[in-house]
Design brief:
Elements: H1 2-17, H2 21-35, E1 46-49, E2 56-62, H3 78-90, E3 94-100, H4 106-113, E4 124-128, H5 131-135, H6 140-158, E5 162-165, H7 181-201, E6 206-208, H8 228-246, H9 248-255
Parallel strand pairs: 2-3, 2-4, 4-5, 5-6
Antiparallel strand pairs: 1-3
């Protein structure tokens, strides 16, 4: 099983870098201080893209990208931009609702954010998670266990909803992270990416966006989080990828 292989790499990697932990901690602390912390998106956490009588509902749940860090408002962040391209793809208005908090892990999402989800039905759910699994050095086994538990809870709650998962963070593309942190976190993120590809592959109506190999030059706001242009490019790429890779819209139309 691939999970055993990835978990073994994770453990061996931890043993190798353990003697360098004090240096890596100081380097990480210095980097965080140098980069600073952007505010989350302001404004309403609910909105609507498009006009018309019959609309669908989108829930965006997760960490800093769900919270819109790097954008002025949620309308120009992940929720609003993904709703825009989703609405254009399905030809219907999209009502979106954000429940997010910067710095949160999948396990913390289950405990702290799921209870805050409004008591209504959603047709689409986007999970923007995994960044903090990487930054907090969570193992492949822990990530898989927690994400499958979260998906199970939400699938039970929302029945036939379609689920979209954003990619494990493309750490290797960050222009601000120094070596060797960039190398270490980049490899851990690649493990989570491969892991997510595998465990979502057989899950019905669950679609994972594979880690990109490149992003536009103006993608980042701070070298880690997307800018408003980054959220637009990311959302468009995800809709195009989901349509091409999974043909989800074709399947959805055939079920009507």
């Amino acid at each position: 099983m691939n999970l055993i292989f990835w978990q073994t790499i994770y453990v061996l990697g931890g043993i190798i870098i353990l003697p360098f932990a004090p240096f890596l901690y100081l380097q990480g602390y210095y980097t965080r201080c140098k980069i600073g912390r952007l505010p989350d998106a302001g404004g309403e956490t609910i909105g609507k893209f498009g006009t018309g009588e019959t609309s669908v509902k989108l829930l965006v749940l997760g960490e800093s990208t769900a919270a819109g860090m790097g954008a002025r408002t949620h309308e120009t962040a992940l929720a609003g931009q993904f709703a825009r391209f989703l609405g254009e793809k399905i030809g219907q208005p999209v009502e979106w609702h954000v429940v997010g908090r910067s710095g949160i892990t999948v396990r913390e999402t289950i405990r702290e954010l799921v209870p805050k989800i409004p008591d209504e039905k959603f047709d689409y759910v986007m999970l923007a998670l995994c960044g903090n699994e990487v930054l907090k050095l969570r193992s492949p086994r822990t990530f898989r266990r927690d994400m499958k538990e979260l998906l199970g809870l939400l699938q039970e709650k929302y029945g036939n909803a379609t689920f979209f998962l954003t990619n494990a963070p493309a750490v290797r593309l960050s222009p601000v992270l120094p070596e060797p942190i960039k190398f270490i976190l980049g490899h851990l993120s690649a493990l989570h990416d491969a892991n997510a590809r595998e465990f979502t592959a057989e899950m019905p109506k669950v679609f994972y966006f594979h880690q990109p190999s490149s992003v536009p030059d103006d993608f980042f706001a701070d070298g880690l989080h997307p800018s408003e242009k980054g959220y637009t490019a990311w959302s468009k790429s995800m809709i195009e990828f989901f349509t091409e890779k999974y043909q989800w819209q074709v399947e959805a139309e055939s079920e009507k």
